[in-house]
TrEMBL record, chain A:
<dbReference type="InterPro" id="IPR038561">
    <property type="entry name" value="SoxD_sf"/>
</dbReference>
<dbReference type="Pfam" id="PF04267">
    <property type="entry name" value="SoxD"/>
</dbReference>
<dbReference type="InterPro" id="IPR006279">
    <property type="entry name" value="SoxD"/>
</dbReference>
<protein>
    <submittedName>
        <fullName>Sarcosine oxidase subunit delta</fullName>
    </submittedName>
</protein>
Automatic annotation (TrEMBL), chain B:
<dbReference type="InterPro" id="IPR001763">
    <property type="entry name" value="Rhodanese-like_dom"/>
</dbReference>
<keyword id="KW-0560">Oxidoreductase</keyword>
<dbReference type="InterPro" id="IPR036188">
    <property type="entry name" value="FAD/NAD-bd_sf"/>
</dbReference>
<protein>
    <recommendedName>
        <fullName>Sarcosine oxidase subunit beta</fullName>
        <ecNumber>1.5.3.24</ecNumber>
    </recommendedName>
</protein>
<comment type="similarity">
    <text>Belongs to the SoxB family.</text>
</comment>
<dbReference type="InterPro" id="IPR006076">
    <property type="entry name" value="FAD-dep_OxRdtase"/>
</dbReference>
<dbReference type="InterPro" id="IPR006278">
    <property type="entry name" value="SoxB"/>
</dbReference>
TrEMBL record, chain C:
<dbReference type="InterPro" id="IPR027266">
    <property type="entry name" value="TrmE/GcvT-like"/>
</dbReference>
<dbReference type="Pfam" id="PF08669">
    <property type="entry name" value="GCV_T_C"/>
</dbReference>
<comment type="similarity">
    <text>Belongs to the GcvT family.</text>
</comment>
<dbReference type="Pfam" id="PF01571">
    <property type="entry name" value="GCV_T"/>
</dbReference>
<dbReference type="Pfam" id="PF13510">
    <property type="entry name" value="Fer2_4"/>
</dbReference>
<dbReference type="Pfam" id="PF17806">
    <property type="entry name" value="SO_alpha_A3"/>
</dbReference>
<keyword id="KW-0560">Oxidoreductase</keyword>
Amino acid sequence: MRLPCPLCGDRDRREFYYQGHAVALDRPARDAGDGAWDDYLHNRDNIAGEVRDLWHHEAGCGAWIEVTRNTVTHVVSGARLVRGTAK
Amino acid sequence: MGYSALKIFKEGLFGQKGWKPVWRNPEPKAEYDVIIIGGGGHGLSTAYYLAKEHGITNVAVLEKGYLGGGNVGRNTTIVRANYALPGNSEFYSHSLKLWEGMEQDLNYNTMMSQRGVINLFHSDGQRDAFARRGNAMINQGDDAILLDRDGVRDLVPLIDFDNVRFPIYGGLYHPRGGTARHDAVAWGYARGADQRGVDLIQNCEVTGIDIEGGVVKGVQTSRGAIRAKKVAIVVAGRSSQVAEMAGMRLPIESHILQAFVTEGIKPILDQVISFGMGHFYISQSDKGGLVFGGDLDFYASYAARGNLPMMEHVMEAGMTLMPSIAKARVLRSWGGIMDMSSDGSPIIDKTETEGLYLNCGWCYGGFKAVPGSGFSYAHLIAKDMHHEPASQFRLDRFRTGRGLMDEEGTGSQHNLH
Amino acid sequence: MRIAGKGLNAGGAPVSFSFDGTIYEGREGDTLAAALLANDVRLVGRSFKYHRPRGILTAGSEEPNALVTLGTHAAQDPNIRATTQELYDGLAARSQNAWPSLKRDAMAVNDLMSPFLSAGFYYKTFMWPKSFWEKVYEPIIRRAAGLGAISGVTNEDTYEKAFAHCDVLVIGAGPAGLMAALVAAQAGADVILADEDSRMGGRLLAETYSVDGREGADWAADIVARLMAMDNVRLMTRTTITGAYDQGTFGALERVTHHTAATQAPRECFWRIVAKRSILCAGALERPIAFPNNDRPGIMTAGAVRAYLNRWGVAPGKSVTIFANNDDAHRTAVDLVEAGVKVAGVIDSRADVQALGDYPIFTNGKVVGTKGRLGLESITVQHSGGTRDIRTDCLAMSGGWNPTVHLTCHMNGRPTWNDDILSFVPTDGAIPDMTVAGAARGVFSTHGCLEDGIAAARAVVDTLGLDAVAVDTPSADDSAYRIEPLWQVEGKGRKWLDFQNDVHVKDIKLAAQENFRSVEHMKRYTTQGMATDQGKNSNVAALAVLADATGRGIPETGTTTFRPPYAPVSIAAMGAGAQGHGFAPERHMTSHQATLDRGAPMIEAGLWYRPSYFPKQGETTWLESCNREVGMVRNTVGICDVSTLGKIDIQGPDAAAFLDFVYCNTFSTLKEYRVRYGLMLREDGHVMDDGTTARLGANHYVMTTTTAAAGQVMKHLDWVSQALRPDLDVRFASVTEQWAQFAVAGPKSRDLLNTVLDADIDGESWPFMACGDVSIGGIVGRLFRISFSGEHAYEVSVPARFGASLFRQLCAQAEAMGGGVYGMEALNVLRIEKGFITHSEIHGRVSAFDIGFGRMVSQKKDCIGNAASQRPGLLEAEREQLVGFKPVDKAEKLTAGAHLFVEGADAVRLNDQGYVTSVCHSPTLGHDLALGFLRDGANRHGETVMMVDHLRGVKTLCEVCHPVFFDPDNTRAKETSNG
């Protein structure tokens, strides 16, 4: 498995750390309430198909990237830097 | 049809002509008291215990593929009750007791073999953490023995004690743990449920859940609509998709776990060994294959297949722990879809929809839970009350933070458990 | 029997080898199987379940029967396929799964019992009495498990792993693969051509076909030579592509020295090949026919007979018969006749076929029985003309050819049934960027394969933006492949499908009868296809039998899943490099050598090695050394290397705001040249890590983390900065490796430092929690007045290259002052006496509230974990909270991992009140101390609880107390005097 780091190009999966779904970019306000924080921390769409998820190029440039990837076929269709894309 | 040595003998003499189907192939009825979505280990055991313990037999198990085709048929067959935290502790303890009586109960040889599980530790700190766990097991009434290095060496001479990157300080030994023949567990429960009148319906995919006014009414399937008074979801890796049919979003992320088996070799390993520093566990099957696995591939996936990095990592762990297995050849690798929950522990609970029940979040520990999960889920479905040993598996614990069971201590990130 | 002058290795030198102790002569270039057949050895193994006699079935890696063990002691290598093992001088092979001998195998008694041992019989019995499964039945079954044996001795061979990258990976070097590689290479692509055989050419090596008017094998050798001369081509022989993975990644196993007696070079190399495109030219595998007693030694596939004859000059029998349902098998007869070997008849199941040469043919023919206990002696044939027995010592069978689709199924692709060839072919697009060519997709003529290889490569190079050079398709045989269905033959006797696992037609039918109708159920119930060949020889026929038994078509019945690896791969190859210490990197502090020189035992701390204690002469236990080291720090001065703690340099105008966001407490208010303790939460509100952070300037901080969490914290800071707070102008870098840092702790710490610092320090300018630059021998270092021991203490850091010398200097000075160096054991005691927590306490399940730091979670600002830490469940009094424990009887032991109960209560789960996390014997206080978590502990100081450790048999009444046992007011650390 290989992932396209926007800074480094195609790299082996071994260089990356996986965090989870890109919902983690949409951090609620501190006072957003139990439900919003429960959704943020725990609940997931967990789609069987194309998803956006978060990887860290830990053994590379250190960039956090958002990868568009299919969870059924593992086809990767794109990646972008998280910096500058989050709210 | 009852199984016995005499029956085997007679059938042997008469060309095996007398064996009957192990389960029927019923057409779905228009309505059931209970519909169980998912014909895996947990779904089949739920059906069995609904019938046996609660006399509820007007039950259908709807399976989109073949019975036992999910994780119950693709795991490393380990059975144990060695959890540290309350909530898990009593549940797995109960499940292990059911394992111990399973063969006689089901009249089916599931080959439960209590060959012992040893969790190795590699530092004083790990020893203390395992001691805490072992004491919790004994508090619960289960068995645990703290082995020192020589104690492990006596039991498992195969391990490299002299030149390993993370030396063995000792192990937490759980003699009642072991392995079982995974497929047989699914078949045994299926047969038992079928004999009690449960309809096991294969190749029947649920496509919708009918809810009216907050009350469940039935399901839509690839073989038509079926009404039901109660609907119970128990679909492991596919939980999020089925729950979505009822408008629910779960604290679940689906991940790959790979497992491996070697060509058959003559017996060399009696116990189940778990090597924490390498996330590696291994046992030897009755056929002679070394059966082993490691950690998740770590990325969300429904592919039921993995990639080389984790596969190699697992082999590397094997090579550092027991370099004498070097020349065993990996025959097959496979992957299952793990319903990773946000604290690494399961959910057996009611939902906001009346009559709709949820059983999921088994992560990669679902196999040993098969009897206990079915027993407790059947109890919840039948009585609308939590069964005591599974009473902590609540869905709302994540929102409230009350009663989280984070055995690994890694927090809310699903893939770290 | 060897045919003089025949075979590609006809000129090969004689090679001596042994099988089961008997010495034989083979020929250079032989496989072990070829050499055994040349010596008329037919019985080579025993089957798994019934221990039936087994002979060589195939000439390839799919061999299910001829599995042998090579080597002894650590080199013992079981389940080696004799069909691929190349012969070398002195090779010694042993048969497997037979006792006392291959000819007289005691376990063959199982075969007599076979009427009672039908598929799945064991699920129906061995249940009574209950305890007998583990005690009686299973041990007997386990003793019979497995085929070969591994030695159980630590591996002594070397194995390697490697990466390779290419534009086009061509898998298989038969006619299709050779042409594909040539076309791709001529277009300028970087090409890897891999083949599992020792020699490239595929079936051309086993057939008498001509290509381009020349012998096929010669033509192949020419193409190989042309490829070898090209810079952009890598040829990999003896290399099996084992798996297809995501984004064009393939696993491959190269058998580097299996063909030699050499022990110096690696045995195997496991390759990770990344290819932009791949072309699968893996050919096809011939399938047996299920007729009664079709498993006797001497019965093999027709293609294998041709391979032994044409490639190695070996006739597997003196009087050969052939049983087939297709034209291809007739070539076996033609080739044998040509070579002067007697063909006793071709039994063809079809009605309208003619002999292609001078041999008897029996149309509408079927083999309905065979004889010969340890090897085939005769067959019984039914045909248009009646029934007859034919004496024969070799039966070549062909039920048709199955394209080698396996790799195309590794990513969940399902093959498609093709009625023309009565087999499965790959489904288009099953593997992204993979094209299939030649026999692997059911193109069976040599000409067709050559043409298909060219076409596939042309299309592939086009997608890479390269131009293919025009190539003419070499002339070659282009006859059609004609086949009629023939899956099983009725008759008396078992009709074997899976030769190794002893699955026969009736087992499949029984599975169907018992409603194991799903193909997956059938496989799992009967073990069909689960042997070492993973059903390569038998699956398609078994499916056909199941389809028939359940009244469905084969496509409807479906297939089981082919999964990696294509051929088995040793754990050693995929795990290469990890044996011993290679499993994980080893991190050494700059004091590592000096520490070893002092005789300190090292312990693993994550990837680091740290000293446990520093024994002095006369000390016999670690505790003695530890107690001395603790006393040294409490009374004089001690040195400890603390460089393993994570150090992160943080700079920028918004550095303060950034720290306020990642720590639950506040750092923007920290004065310059001061240090503050910080607590970091995970976003879920639990404690992630703690440490001190120093402010070295308005916009410059240095954060420390625990040793264990250094990586996690760095990743977390990257996350927060890039994803959550890109608005903050801050940059940071891990400098853990760049600075060596030493604790100097004890009443004489300042005195000691003043012997090494270029300018003296005093209590006024360096109060508790001060920090700043210092000069040490002209080197700019940093000094932090912080304490993890509770003593007047400092940590001094210098660029790592000066670490070793500073450590020696500090140790020497300390010893001169009556102190010395201390290790982890003493460090642990010192911190427990002071109630300082480590990851034993912050184990991932505790909140700030639990450790008494609830008020540190500033509610004046947002921070990571703030919202979730306020969930009701994380703040409830009944949670277990950090407390200290002292034995009521000071002589009694405390143990970590023990649980806590109200005195008098049964030590069972329902009464569990908490647990002990850290324990030490305090030489300072003269008794054991413990930290732990107790339900509502913060409100229970002064109570007594019972500590129970079932595992170690310890039960101690304890007093609950504040977790700080020693110097609760911290007066020692805050010492300000200048004396």
